[in-house]
Amino acid sequence: MSALAEIKVVPLPMGAASGAAVSFAKDAERNARFKARFPKARWSSQTGSWLISGKTAAERAALWAEEEAARGALEARLRLRAEIDRAWHEADPAVRAAKEERRRRREAEDAAAEEKRQVELDSRRYKPDDAMIERIVAAHMRSVEAGKGRIGPAYTVGPERLRTFLRRGIAPGSHTSAGPDREHFGAGLTVTYLGDGRMLLVSKYPRIRGRNGRWQEVEVSRREMIASTELMEKLLSHLAWREFMPRSGFGVPNCR
Q1: How far apart (Å, rounded) are the C-alpha atoms in residues 240 and 236?
Q2: Average pLDDT over residues 77-89
Q3: Taking residues 190-209, what's their average pLDDT?
Q4: Backbone angles phi, psi at 80, to 5 degrees
Q5: Which of 12, 39, 138, 146 is most buried, with most CB under 10 Å away?
Q6: Which of 226, 255, 15, 64 is nearest to 146 (CA)?
Q7: What separation in angstroms does the CA of 9 have from each of 17, 20, 38, 44, 52?
């Protein structure tokens, strides 16, 4: 549909109050151009159109509509020309080669940034010693052996694969439930490793239903501290079970 057809001009022959009603699709730029041409026009919410007063209002509005149609046709030709030029440009082998080179360079930069991020992340990891690794491996293998009848072949990780995972350490942001809080009766303790040898301990009571009918958790305390060996071993053990436990089924032994 042309821009001229989109603009509707209706003459309003009402004697001294004659004028015209102009309506067109919502367009911020066209609306601004209309108000610049007809600063005294009034918007009518009842008719959904602009009202222009004056005996020559219809002629002036029709002339503006023709100018808008010419503008729209010119913009359409320019867009078509730009699309043709872009198609010819992209068909050029040299252009395609340059585009591919930019893509490869961008991918290389992204890979380098990700590698740098991983190196920084690894530098902040908690690295367990060999004794901790062996304690976790022994505890896991005992649990697997004791629950072999229930687990069956679902849990297939062996000691060496488990050791490889444990040597990666604990990344910042890793967290686990550490059981009941000894300092606050009835509260549960959650441990989050913050990186650089520090950890966050959050103690909460179990969820209760409040007066508003919603379930709520009551936080008792929140404190940062130097990472303790006992809690970091429990966190690392939990991460290992979460990594290798079956994704479905029941009977996975609880090592925590």
Answers
A1: 6
A2: 84
A3: 88
A4: -60, -45
A5: 12
A6: 255
A7: 16, 7, 14, 14, 10
